[in-house]
From TrEMBL:
<dbReference type="InterPro" id="IPR016907">
    <property type="entry name" value="UCP029033"/>
</dbReference>
<dbReference type="InterPro" id="IPR052022">
    <property type="entry name" value="26kDa_periplasmic_antigen"/>
</dbReference>
<protein>
    <submittedName>
        <fullName>SIMPL domain-containing protein</fullName>
    </submittedName>
</protein>
<dbReference type="InterPro" id="IPR007497">
    <property type="entry name" value="SIMPL/DUF541"/>
</dbReference>
<dbReference type="Pfam" id="PF04402">
    <property type="entry name" value="SIMPL"/>
</dbReference>
Length: 236
């Protein structure tokens, strides 16, 4: 009986020691795992102001008449006036295109006294597509001269002037590099505050590039923006 008690006591002692050592190992492993998993996720921003390099300037006009032949002649005559105005402003022939006219029979849905004086209404657009941004800006305030020459310009907001920037590919690498540097600076500051050092990049994602007008008064100046998100490991 005494031997059994002694054996049980020895076995219990070994189990206790094993649990203590095992617990110590597991605790050490957990601390190591947490240490290895230490990281910081930061965002880096890069912005740049650029000048637009392409302008789309639509001159939308309307004519009316009671016969299609007369309507077509009015379109041709007004298109010629607009072309002459644009040539005088310095635009080349290959920068100017005329869209096909859209003709509406105004009698189709009107009856009796509701019918307008002219049966047909036709709309067309003279589009200037050019890289001469300054020439477009200088010419836009002068379009009132077309009215005195018989051109009825339509204030249709679907035909607004657009200034575009098409050179994004040429500035992408530099902007991504600056956004990455900005992110690393933020990670370095965080690491210094926490008594760590910035380690390797664990993962990274590049946000999309956005191009917006600098403001509503200078649509020919664009602000290009990109944000990167980077996960850095932290080393002791």
């Amino acid at each position: 009986m005494n031997n059994n008690v002694l054996a049980a006591a020895v076995l219990g002692l070994f189990l206790a020691v094993g649990l203590v050592l095992g617990g110590s190992y597991l605790n050490s492993a957990a601390v190591s795992w947490k240490s290895a998993d230490r990281s910081v996720t930061v965002k880096g921003l890069a912005e740049r102001e650029v000048k637009a390099d392409l302008a789309l300037w639509p001159l939308h006009f309307t004519v009316t008449g009671n016969d299609l032949t007369g309507v077509q002649k009015k379109i041709d005559d007004q298109a010629a006036v607009i072309r002459a105005f644009l040539r005088d402003a310095g635009f080349a022939a290959d920068e100017i295109t005329l869209t096909s006219p859209q003709v509406t029979d105004q009698y189709a849905n009107s009856y009796g006294n509701q019918r307008p004086d002219a049966r047909y209404s036709a709309e067309a657009t003279m589009l200037v597509r050019t890289d001469k941004i300054a020439a477009v800006k200088q010419s836009m305030p002068r379009v009132g001269a077309l009215i005195s020459r018989g051109v009825l310009l339509s204030p249709n907001y679907n035909y607004r002037t657009e200034f575009l920037f098409t050179g994004l590919e040429s500035i992408k690498p530099d902007m991504i590099a600056k956004a990455t540097a900005d992110a690393r600076a933020a990670a370095k500051q965080f690491a210094e505050d926490s008594g760590s050092e910035v380690g390797q990049i664990r993962s990274a994602s590049q946000g999309y590039f956005s191009i917006q007008d600098l403001d509503s008064y200078t649509p020919d100046i664009k602000r290009v923006r990109v944000v990167t998100t980077i996960d850095y490991a932290l080393d002791d």
